[in-house]
Specification:
alpha+beta, five-stranded mixed sheet, 180 residues, globular, 5 helices
């Protein structure tokens, strides 16, 4: 039996004819052509297949595509910039050597992306607890925690800078518009 579905992945719609028994991880890799989602344990334990479904981290090896048909799915390929340059989280992973062999990295990146969107003010202990849900045999987790903490700090600083800029602009506009 073949099932017709439409998946929205990284902002693009994909009309697919697939066997219903196939996992989201397999469909993303083999039908959509996004090979950044890795398949490790195939039991939802290791986290290598983590993607975002409507902004929340999810294990793609445990999901059937029909379960997420009306959802927005994001894979690690969505993190880069428009020219293919690495996104801020990817740069932090690189700068802090949180990559090592790289097999688990896409899952950690997507876990962190979803978590930081939900908790932009996350502290080190919270980050440490979250990353414990994914498995890595190379890094010892310290560099991954360092990378996520650094990215969170940079994102908060950038947001504060934008907010400060808006405050200055609106204050300047009110000052210029008032009579002397």
């Amino acid at each position: 039996m073949i099932q017709l579905i439409e998946l929205r992945v990284n902002g693009e719609c994909h009309d697919l004819a697939i066997e219903p028994r196939r996992t989201l991880a397999d469909v993303l890799r083999h039908d959509v052509g996004l090979t950044g989602t890795h398949v490790g344990c195939e039991h939802g334990v290791c986290g290598a297949c983590t993607v975002l479904v409507d902004g929340a981290p999810a294990r793609a090896c445990l999901l059937f595509p029909a379960q997420v048909e009306n959802s927005e799915i994001r894979t690690v390929e969505s993190l880069g910039g428009p020219g293919g340059e690495p996104g801020d989280l990817q740069r932090c992973f690189s700068e802090h050597h949180g990559l090592q062999c790289g097999f688990c990295t896409p899952g950690f990146l997507m876990l962190a992306e979803g978590y930081l969107a939900e908790r932009p003010d996350a502290n080190r202990e919270e980050i440490r607890e979250v990353v414990a849900s994914n498995l890595c045999r190379c890094t010892g987790y310290q560099t991954i925690v360092d990378a996520i903490e650094d990215c969170a700090t940079r994102r908060r600083a950038a947001l504060q800078e934008r907010l400060d800029g808006r405050t200055r602009t609106s204050t300047e506009t009110r000052t210029q518009g008032s009579p002397a």
